[in-house]
Design a protein that fits this description.
Blueprint lengths: L1 H9 L6 E6 L2 E9 L8 E9 L9 H12 L6 E6 L4 H9 L3 E5 L8 E6 L6 E4 L2 E4 L11 E10 L3 E10 L3
Parallel strand pairs: 3-4
Antiparallel strand pairs: 1-2, 2-3, 4-6, 5-6, 7-8, 9-10
């Protein structure tokens, strides 16, 4: 299950599971898997969840952004995830942020669409004055001001990870 998979992924990176907080309140989680789909140069998100009362507050894209930040330095040019075709809310969210269906999971307990998003930055650069700029493909928008604090935790000696702590500033 989730805990076993999370423990396995955490042996490869302390960033394999990141949790988002608003002050002291847990609001979401994203898990990344660097092995699955590596042969396709894709980063895999096995689990991405925003607490139900906190949906529609642009937190999900922050979690996707965390996955992009994890996979780009590894040279991955795509993100992949699975989503139930009948989960209209999640399907809408992923399509809104650039994911498209590329196939269907074979052999799963329930029907699952395999969805993918291109995340590679273009390598084309140009000089402007003394500054070197890189033209990139915009993949995410930072929709909320936030500050990042990182903490190392241990939960009943089961998981040792770093938490992505997002503090949301209200205006």
């Amino acid at each position: 299950g989730f805990l076993r998979d999370a423990e396995e992924h955490l042996t490869h990176s302390p960033w394999a599971v990141s949790m988002a907080f608003d002050r002291d309140e847990w609001v979401g989680i994203v898990q990344v898997d660097a092995k699955r789909y590596a042969e396709d140069n894709a980063g895999y998100i096995p689990f991405c969840y925003v607490d139900y009362p906190r949906r529609d507050q642009h937190l999900g894209i922050q979690l996707i952004g965390q996955a992009v930040s994890y996979f780009r330095p590894l040279g991955r040019d795509k993100l992949r995830l699975r989503c139930a075709p009948y989960n209209e809310r999640a399907q809408h969210f992923y399509h809104k942020y650039g994911f498209s269906k590329i196939g269907e999971e074979v052999g799963s307990r329930v029907p699952l669409d395999i969805m993918e998003k291109y995340i590679k930055l273009a390598q084309k650069s140009f000089n402007k004055g003394n500054r070197l700029f890189y033209k990139g493909i915009a993949t995410i928008k930072i929709l909320l001001p936030f500050s990042l604090l990182y903490h190392q935790i241990s939960q009943q000696n089961l998981l040792q990870t770093y938490i992505l702590h997002i503090t949301i500033h209200s205006h």
